[in-house]
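Late entry, PMT complex.
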Amino acid sequence: MSPLANKRILLGVSGGIAAYKAAELARLLRAEDVGVKVVMTRSATAFVAPLTFQALSGQPVSLELLDAHAEAAMGHIDLARWADRILIAPATADFIAKLRIGIADELLTAVCLAAEAPIVLAPAMNRVMWHNSATQNNVQCLRNRGIKILGPMEGAQACGETGLGRMMEPADICAALAAAFSGGILNGVSVLVTAGPTREAIDPVRYISNRSSGKMGYAVAEAAAEAGAEVTLVSGPVSLSAPDIKAIVKVESAREMYQAVMERVASQAIFIGAAAVADYRPVAAQTKKIKKEAGRPQLILEKTDDILAGVAQLDDGPFTVGFAAETDNLEEYAQRKLQNKALDMIAANWVGRPDGGFDHDENALTVFWPNGQRLLPMAPKRVVAKQLIALIGERFHANKR
Ligand code: PMT
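Prediction complete; structure with ligand written out below:
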């Protein structure tokens, strides 16, 4: 039986072009035996007629805050009490802003304000509106209040632009809701993930770094959260939107990443080191910009502390998963890192090739653990990350037994 069966989901539709996709969402939810009631904002009715949702949900659609026909004229309270989950899809920038400050000027905003059930948002908007710091601040504030944000996704937009802002596909929203109801393989487990590159200062304007975009580590953090984990992400400098997780700590250098991890790792059950941490840094960063001079300037480097090895060596430390980025001898070097650093697992990937690895949207991993290995073939990093988290969940629970 689907984990969604017999659940009661209040589907809130706010006014954006993606409202047409919410009709498909209502159909998919009904197909999973979900009780669906739909509440539309006034502007949503300009995109899709309420009758469409009535036909798909098998229930009258609620539109008005001051509805004399609703029992005791308290429709918003009744609806809020009825729902096991409130899902707003699409959630427009305007709706998200209202939710943040608690405006209750129409039925859907009033229901959200009166709800004790968890609220899930599937944002959809133009990419510039999504990246606007007003929207980003609102989204982060809602996340901090425990509201779950699904998406948005990258791709072609109704406005003709391409970027982040498309509503997550209805089937993926259903899958995320099902995972939330079924608990997920890492339900309640604390997971610390590192992602992105580090920057090692040479002087105030120059640094040594690498090609890591953070995409793999962010996808891993998000997949762990989708599997029910309480995720803290320690991130090097990247230009990605914050994933929907418990906490994110931004750092720049290997030293800062080491400190951020060590300050938090004692309370963690799993550590996943997906960051491309610099192995070397300049011995002393110059305080003033180095001037161009004749001859060959010398840069003296020293080793950085190995965060992964440090975590793996802790007494009562977490289940520790490393990554290995290799240009040759993938299996041999990954197995060596697994043993030398005393890891529970290592996920090895090819780098420096035309596909996968640094900065690409796709990747393939070969995962090794003592007495086992599995290939996760080339796929979008989001997909590979989900498979990796499923595998980590299996090994983590097996180790506990
Ligand atoms: O960020 P993307 O563009 O999406 O690219 C993804 C990725 C290629 C960066 C990622 O999949 C990956 O392989 N991350 C690890 C990169 C790396 O530094 O590999 P390594 O083989 O040099 O290091 C082995 C492990 O030791 C890694 O888990 C690394 O985080 C860790 N390490 C290394 C040095 C150091 N000082 N401290 C560490 O913890």
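Residues 8-182 form a domain with the Rossmann fold fold (CATH 3.40.50.1950). Will revisit in the morning.
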